[in-house]
Amino acid sequence: MNLLLASRRCIIMLLCFSIIGWPLLPADCIDIIPLGYVTAEPATPVLMGSNLTVFCHLFKCEQRSTLYLELNKQEVKSSKRENCTTTVFYLPRVWMPLSKVVCMMQSEQMSRLKVVSGLDLRAGLPPDKPANISCETTRSSDLVNCSLQRGQETYLHTRYNISVLRYTVMVLDGEKISIPRAILDENTKYTLIATAYNHFGASQSDPFIFSLEDIAIPETPHIVRMEFMNESTSATLYWNTSESSMRLRPQEPCCKGLIQVENLRPLTEYEFQIKTCASLSRQTPTSTPSFKTSLRSLCSKWSPSVRRMSPGKGPSQELHVWRTLGEQARNGLRTVTVFWKPPPLDCYSGELLKYSILLDNGHEENCAAASSQCSVQAPVESQTLSVRAVTSYGTSPPASVDLRHTGLSESFLGKLTLEADAGSVHVSWSSTAGKDLLYFVIEWESMPAGRLHWTKVLKELKETTITGKEIFRLTDLFSCRVSGLMAGVRYNLSLYAVTTRGVSAPASRLIYSREQSKTGFALHPGLHPCPPTILLLFWSPCAFLSEPLSAPTLHVLIREARRILVRWDELPLSQQRGFITKYTFYWQTLDSSSTKLSGEHLKYKPS
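The structure assignment produced for this chain is given below.
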């Protein structure tokens, strides 16, 4: 009786551990008394994909009962009742490496299913042939470390026996294989064989033939220090190793102990590791029955990693700068308005703090980060000043602004030609500057006085198209297209040559990108103290079929019997919308019945 109780306790404990988590079991499984037991043929573990027969046995005969079997919570349909205590269930092609079966019983006396017992089913595969064996050691190591490829997963405990000479080591799953180096001679060739064993059989590798000289790799290096360069896009790694430099392959163009890393991004965390490689003068171990020699490069293990955050970078290029000069004041100063193009956002890290203007007398003026121009008071004798962009990670190189005049007239630039074309103007010119030339500057300003726009044109760019901020090279003629101009607005365009001797006088032109017209004619009666027999009418069309917004205001200065003298006010530029090329006068007597007007054209000569 005591033996039976002990058996039942053992079965209860096995049930608790084998079907833990099964939803049909009560939470307190210690109180469950099994009604029977479950067996399987063939006994587990089974070869994966095999058919399995499961027997559910009751301890006592239950005539009016039915037995059920669940495999991983799915009911098994295929079954056969052999007698009142045993039912056979058939499981075809079991592929899962670990399954759970639970046998349950239902009878007339039971309101619900009761668990009879359960069983864990294990399936697996025989081991593949170990392949791709490799071994390595360093000159200072006491061990030879080997590795191999196990092949497909067996889903079972698999052990590997590694034999060299009379030395055998057994490892589970072939993860780490270490052989004492002391059992091996330096100049002797050895044969290593790996054999894999599990429940379904054994598999042996091809012989791996090696010598210590063949498998010796360089010692693992260490990174001792690293430095980021000024622009934070490169870093220098300082490293050392106990390996003899005679055995290492030189790394060009850097010298021993230094490695240059390029193309880094600012404010980015990097993990650095290095390894060293021996010269290409070794024999290659082989996993074939016959030993073959070939050239091979052996490299060390990767060094311990070093993590660093790359610093932010400051702008590395000079700003594009320009200036306009004011009149000289009595105190020997003059106003210099300095212009610059902000640096592109991808050229620096962090925040743009300010712009710094440094005069050649040492005086510094700071300007707001959001600005693109700033006015400073500079001594008349000052010849240059410099502009820098200041960011949270550094400053740009100083961009020099020349305040000198070369004394060269606009003829220095050759002929300046303009071609207007729907919102843009094509500017062409030539220059005799020669080697003194640094670059050109084109500026344009709407009239009446508006915001000054400018762009820098490099001397290498002969034919240039300017669209906002972009410059494209086309041909060898100095030329550019200024776009983004408003139709009907007059601009004053000036071209400067910046040389090593200073800035030339400007070659300037008044331009319209397009002269604007309006619908119909503007016919405006003049208001004047004329005799009642005369009515003066005035109309002023401009060139290119464009018209002003209105006619000018007339003033009668002299009125005589056969003549009058009139004066008119010139139209504001905002009303002209183009260049005025002529004026036309029309007159008609008030008592005339004719509808035809007499007229006269006058050529326009701007004052």
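Interim note for the steering committee: Residues 1-31, 289-295, 463-476, 519-545 have pLDDT under 50 and may be disordered. The CA atoms of residues 41 and 248 lie 62 Å apart.
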